[in-house]
Design brief:
Layout lengths: L6 H17 L3 H4 L7 H6 L15 H11 L3 H9 L19 H22 L6 H30 L7
Helix pairs in contact: 1-4, 1-5, 1-7, 6-7
Length: about 160
Amino acid sequence: MQRLLGARACDGLRETTRRSVVQGGGPERFQYVTRVNQGQLSKYWTFDPDRRSQLFMPIDIAIEADMEAGAPIIVGEMARQLGYRLVRDEDVAGPSGELGHEDLLAFEEAAHRVIQTVLRSVADGHVDRGEGADILEKVALLLRYAGILQQKAESARRGAGTGEE
């Protein structure tokens, strides 16, 4: 019996899983807020050319990874593969607090780390696999902070918590 998910779809899910965990702070941090350890987490995105021991992240862990990442990275990819897109439920609370200087500072620092990492990586005219992974890790963190800024700005636009509904 042939699987409904092809190799390309499986590879996409593995990469999406890795991005979600990295954006949520990395496997070292994530292992403390879920039921699996760091070694098991890395098996969810490790390439197995024979696909004999291919593991996928259980759905409860995937949801926790997306919660830590602050965005539906894995769940969004699952929906995309089924031909759907996710739409944010406006009734669900996002990050707490109002948009403030500390949010902008965290975003700015993350952006600076991306720029510095890319500049170092392209200095020799070639970005190798390790440098690419480092760039992706820094970009994932930047996207996390961008998501927090977006959610807080949307909350302010709706007048949440100000009585200006």
